[in-house]
Every structure is written in structure tokens, then in C-alpha cells.
Amino acid sequence: MPKNTHDVIVVGAGHNGLTAASYMAKAGLDVVVLEKNDWIGGAAVSRELYPGWKYSNCSYVCSLLRPEIMRDLELYKYGLQIIPYEGSATMMKNGDYYTHYHDHDMTINSIRRHSHKDAEAYERYSRDVLRQCKIIKPLLKMTPPDLTSFKPKDLFGALEFAKHFAAKDELGGLGEKEIYDTIRFYTMSIRDYLEEYFESEITKAHLAGSAIIGTALGPCSPGSAYVLLHHYMGEVDGSVGSWGYARGGMGSITQAMMGCLKDHGGEVKPSSEVTNVITKNGKAIGVATQNGDEYYAKKIVSNLDVKRTFLKITEEKDLPDDFVRSVKNFKIRGSSGKLNIALDGLPDFPCIPEGDPGGGGDMHFTETIEEMEGAYDDWKRGEWSRNPYVDMCIPSKSDPTMAEPGKHYMSVFIQYVPFNLANGGWNEERKQEFGRHIVDCIAEFSPNFKDLINHYEVRTPLELENEVGLTEGNIFQGELTMDQLMFNRPVPGYAQYRTPLKNMYICSSSTHPGGGVMGAPGANAAREVLLDMNVPQKGNYY
Amino acid sequence: MTQDLRYSALKKTPFHAKTSLASRTNKYYNWNGYTVPTEYSTTELEYTAARNGTSVMDLTPMGKYEIIGDHAHQFVDYLVTRDLSKMKDNTVAYIIWCNEDGKVIDDGTIFKFSSTKFMLCCAVKIYNWLNDSAYGFDVTITDVTDTIAALAIQGPTSCSTLKKFGATDLETLKPFEMREYKIDGSDILISRTGFTGDLGYELWTDPKNAETTWDNIEIAGKELKLRPFGMYALEMTRIEAGFIQTNTDFMAAEDSLRPTRMRSPYEIGMGWLVHLNKNSYFVGKKALKKEKEENTTERCLVGLDIDGDKPAHGSVIYNSKKEDIGIVTAALWSPIMKKNIALASLKRPYGIKIKENIFAEIYHPEELEYRKIWARCKVVKRQFFNPERRNKVPADLYE
Lengths: 542, 399
What we know:
The complex is a heterodimer. Chain A contains 18 helices and 20 strands. Chain A has helices at 15-26, 67-72, 104-112, 116-140, 152-166, 168-171, 176-187, 190-195, 201-212, 224-232, 251-263, 306-312, 321-329, 369-380, 428-443, 449-452, 461-468, 520-532, and strands at 5-11, 31-34, 47-50, 53-55, 82-84, 87-91, 97-101, 235-236, 239-240, 244-246, 267-269, 274-280, 283-289, 294-302, 336-343, 363-364, 389-393, 408-415, 453-459, 504-506. In chain A, the strands form 6 sheets. In chain A, strands 1, 2, 11, 12, 13, 14 and 20 form a 7-stranded mixed sheet that branches. In chain A, strands 17-18-15-19 form a 4-stranded antiparallel sheet. Chain A has a 3-stranded mixed sheet with strand order 7-6-16. Chain B has helices spanning 16-22, 43-52, 72-79, 127-133, 158-165, 210-220, 231-241, 285-294, and strands at residues 27-31, 34-39, 54-58, 63-68, 91-98, 104-114, 117-122, 140-143, 149-154, 178-183, 186-191, 200-205, 226-228, 299-306, 316-319, 324-334, 339-347, 358-366, 369-380.
């Protein structure tokens, strides 16, 4: 028997790889996780790039991580805690503001400042969105059925899927109207959807933000309404749609997962970039790493996105041609950038009244959907948005572990930023120019902001690809559009975490239910591997 | 100051001017005859402060009794089931005390200043009980509930907050120790005690210092994620810590109308506080010895880890034959553990010898209808959440 033999190899120590690995290790398998970087966590990391400040330098907030996963893997034991945030705000150039709160009635009072009608429409809107979230929630945990198969598992699966759409048990039965709404929700643009409820521009602009974050769609693009749902279906302790910070930064999530994995005998090897999958007789039997090591296992689970998995580490000759073509056509477009900023103090945002909890969470300054669409137009031309949509937050306002008392860490997510920058692509100079542009945009709303900056890190889609390994820097590992969701994710016919290459699986966000620090793809994939290996599984998730 | 002559059924604590200013929701409740906030802003965020930053709670309504006299130490040792004969000065001990039948009256904490001076803190009113029990002891008992203002300062950054407030070297204070400070001219006693199961302190001072103390702590904790927290959030943290609450998880012997509702320490998971072999006699010893010898303990109080995410408030607990074996006394979806936990009073051998195949019937309200959930439970340690930082010396600092 060759050395370095395990039950399972997981390629990539991001949150889905670690979730899958932990579930499999808990079930008693010998699991090794190979990571290319010399740190672990993928896009869920906390890194000290400037002494004294911790940056959640990729993903920055948490809501989607399934509570069942946190429970099964006992992540609290390994230090994970989610800190809910109190509210969010959009600042306006005329000095006014819009705020949204944890408390429903406070939000209604706030919307009423802009439109009495909208304040009441918000009741209807939040009910309708919540209803859609409740329909989706049970689907997240399911392996999508293959609708073309007649295997009992798929037939029952399809029935189960249909049942959840009809949502008899969760919501007491939906009528035709609600099912039509579901279909509309999956195909509409967020602008059209919001216009059915609201009249005030600022209300629409604030709510539409969730529909564009991370996607290369604009607010007028069909399908953007679903992206909003994707951001809403998370929860923090039963409050659906709530968001929070991981205490200690997003790295706490993957560190806790690693703690669980190690406690169950699993192993993580950093600085071990997998270069190719070793096959024998059309079956995957192992992997080779850049440093020349070879690892062998019964099952190989890839946490890389679908393009990297099949166009980079697997050889085309081992895969069916139509499959390779589908993978090549998979939409995975970078659309966002990020600034991580070390601040010497708390910047003032005079628009937001002092002490207003609306300033406690995410802050924005896009006032209309048109502005947002304009930002998207720049991206289409291969430029970063001159008037960008930003999702900025200061986790250190709530989390005492990110910086010393009185110092602050600010995360600024920027949309839109192209992967292929027009006129010659990205270079250091243009990257810094982009960074300065964003700083200037923020400074318009905060007079002392620039003076407080100690250091900042600029991240374009290029850094995301090179460092984390997300193709084109797409944070969801593939667009969240209907043609790439559920049984179509990553490609039709292969939505069950298995791949055309025997013994090779995929557990990344390129699979159902998609991106965001959710862990569901990892847990779902682990279930399928365990099923194939006849290993009994238990836990709250399954 | 103009005197408020309106009739008020409930008393205000010395912190009231400050707590009412901090309250965004104006939600109060009656605790021991005082009006105190249940919630200041959002319970969820107040809870978070206790597990992430610093939480501050007005503890003044807690029953507080000073026991002074030559026999103070003997009397205290006679009163409680725990052996306190070796208790050191400037320490605190967790205690329970029983009536003559060995049924629990209350739990609380006892503070030892010297062998002639103690302070007892507890939930129920026991001035009368203490005086009756003190027959033959040279002690004077004073109800100091109104004359000592108390705050709980709990959470991972609480030590840093109090250090900034002026409590020098506080990190060296060990759990269940106390230390007297002079801060800004005020005498302040700080003990490393609390009801949240986390790093935390309690602070005791003269009511005249209350308002400035509150203000200064608020300033000290400004950058340390300080937030006042109310009873709802405290309830969440104490369930996670597995602490019991009198008249919630068990009926106080002196309050039980129905004699069958009274519980011995063994029935509420407090057997570890009963030292039958301590040299001196204590109230209830004979009865407890008999119960132990004859093995007549009927119930137990256990922790349950319950399937699903719907809290089992007031649920009846069944065995697999659907026989009623007990009741949930406190239930919570724990935000930090993402677990559905509960404290339950079960009929033995359930909870002691039989720990599996136990079910809770949960009635989950859903828009004016109930969904009945039959959830599997696992008997687990009652101390659900017990972070390392709780007992760490020196305590964690955020500087």
C-alpha cells in the first residue's frame, strides 16, 4: 500500500471543504484536507496584514452558515460566535439618511420618514419575502433530484422538492398565487419586484443592494430578485434575513471547523497545492501536489470551483466532452472588489444621527436604482464603477477582538469591479487608483475618514482569483441565476455532488445551493460520499 | 430635589434614573418589589453583550442580608448544607439552605469578610427565616437590600471595563474571591461572581455612589462593547450556564402551597452542596441523611439537548411509552451553541439511569395555530456553556 493513503482527500480548506471534511471525520473516516495557501480558510479568513488589526479580508459577514452545521460540528466549542448587528443605513447626498433595523417596527417608523405608503407596503413586502425564504429553506439541505432519472431516489427526491415548493408542511399550504409568485421571484429583476411595493427611491435603493452583491447582474437584470432571496434566506437565531459578524473575523468560522476536524482525527495540510487528480482506469485514485507529494484515497472531494476542478486539476481525457463544454460555459464572472481598512478611530458619518443603531451594521450611499444600474453599466464596459455601490461595515464596533479598544477595522465591499479591466487589464498602479477612488467616495460622507486611515488593502477580482482561487474572483463560485441553480448547478445532470469521474466529488459553492458562507454544499456533498461508502451518518443537518 | 409624592406600589432602585435613561423600550417588571428593566433595547443584542463584550445589570433588588457577630461563622455554617468551616476571608461561596425537612428554601451566595461578618445574597426574602434560625447564636442580622446598591458586570471584556473604571489589578482576582476598592472616593466591593456562567463580576456599593458608578462604568466600557442588559437576556445566559432559578426550576420550600412540590437538594441537582459529613449540625441534616440512606429521592433536575430548533417551553416530557415523566422548567434556543436546550425536572430513574428515548412534546405557536412537535431529547450536563475564560486567572484583558 502506498503511503499517504486515506479514506478521503478534500482539495481546498475553505469553509465548504472543511465542513465536508468535518462531517466525514465525525462519521469515522480518515480525512486529509490539502490547501494551497500557507493559511487555511479560503475566503473565510481573518488575517493580520497590518499589526494590531485583524481583517476579514474576503467574506466579511455571516448569516447563511446553516445553524444545524454549527450545532453538529459544535463550532462554539472551537470559538465560533456570531454577533448579530443592529441595523443598516444608506446615506444621502442631501444629508438625509435611510435606516433599517433589527426591529421590524423601528424599520417601519424609519421608512415612514420617506413615504407613509412604503412604510405599510414594507409589511406586505417582508411577509412575501419571508414566505419565499421559508419555501427555499428546506431545499438548501437537499441533494437536488435528477429530473431525468427514474431511480427511486430521484423520483422521491423530485416529489420532495415539489412538496417543498407547495410547502404544505412549512406554511400550511400555498395557493396557486403563491407558487406563481415563487416563479416570478426566480425570474424577475429586483427593480421590477420592488416597484410592485414601493414608491420612494431611497427605500428601493436600500433594499435592492442585497440583490446585486456578489453578482454580475444589475438591478434591472432579470434574475436579480433571486439574488436578494439568496441573501435573505440566512438567519441569525431565528431572525430570518439577519446578518452578523463572526467574532474574531470570518476566519473564526474556518478555524472552528478545523478544530472540529482535528478533534475527530482529520488533518489539514497547508502549502499543498493540488496540481492534478491521479486516475486509473477512469477512476480517481489520488492527487499530486505541487511540492511533489502524492496522496491516495478511496474518494476525492474537490472544494474548488467547477472550472478549476475540471479544467485545471482534472484532465479532459478523463471527462465526457459535453460535460467539459458545459463546464466551460459555466458563468463565473467577477464583479466585486474590496477594501480592508485599519482605522485609528471611529469615522464620523454626519448623515446618521449619533447613537442611531442604524449605523451599527452595513452602510451604503447609493440613493437610487438608476445609480446602481449606472454602476453596472461601467462594469459592462470593463471599468470599475465611477459611482459604485458599496457595502461597508465596521465590525470592530461590535467585535472587541478585531482591533485594540478605540481602533477600528472597516470592511468595504465594492460593486462593480471587472475581472478583465478594459485598456490593458489590472496592474499595481490601476489597483491603487481604484483604491484611492473608493476612499474618495467614502470621504464624501465622512469628513475625518481619510485622516484616520493607517493602512488599507485593495482587492480586485484578480487578487481573489490568484490568492483564494475563485475563478475570475466570483465570490459565489458561479452566478446565482436560474440556469445555474438547483438541478442545474453546477451543470445539468451533475447536481448531486458526484462527477463524471468515478470516486471524484465536488463540494464547493459551485454546487447547490450556491455561494455565501453557508456550508450547505459541503454538508450535502459529505452526505453523498458517506452514502456511497455505506457509512452511517447522523446529526441535526441530515 | 422635589419629593415624588405619588403612590408607587413598586420601589425604584438607586440606579433607576440611569437605567430608565438607558431604556429604549420602557419595558419593566417587578422583581422583589422593585421596578427594573426586562429589556433595554433588544434582548438578542443584550444577550450578545454578555457573551461578547460587557453587560451591566442592576442587581439591587436581590435580597441582601448582613450577618454580624461573634457567632457569625458558626451560624452561617449551621444555616447552609455546604461545609463552610474552612471558608477564607474575602471569598464568596455558592450555597443552598433547607428547612428542617431537608427541602430547599433557596440558593444564593455568601460573602465572608471575616469570621464575624458575612453577607448573604439570594432571590427570596429570608429576613424572618434568618432571625428565627439564629436563635441561640450571637449574631445580628440586618436586611441591607435597600442600603447596598449592586451591579452585575459580566462578559468577556468585563475585566477590562472594570480595570478602566479603576479596579487596579482586577485580572488577578480569582473566581469566588472579592476585593475592596476605593474608586473616585467611593468604597466599592468587587466580587468575581455572577449568574451568566461567563467571566464576570458583581459590584457592591453605597446607594449614594450608584449614579456616578453607573456613569463611570458606562464610560469605561464605551470601547469594550458595553451594554446594559435586562432580565430577559439574563434568563438566556443563566439557562446556558445551567444555573437554577428559585420558583422557576423548583419551588422554594417556604413558598410551596402544595407540600409535594417541595424539593430536596438531591432533586434539583444540588447534592454536591450537601456535606453530610461536616462536623457541625446544619438545618435539615437529619432529613437529608435519611433521604440519602434510604435512597428515597424521587426526582432530578437535568439538562436536555432537544432535537430541532423550537424551544420546549413548559413541555411535558415523556418516555417512549408516552408516559409522563416530567416537565421542562426552562427552555432556550441557545444563540451561541445553536442548540435547543432545556432544564427539566424528571421522575427518577429517568434522567439518572435512563438517559435515552426521552421525548418532549412541544407546542410551537404558528399564527394562532399550534404545531405539535414530538422531539427527541438527550440528557446532558446541565452546565451547557462553560467557556474557558470563565475561570481563567489572570482574566482575559482587551487592551
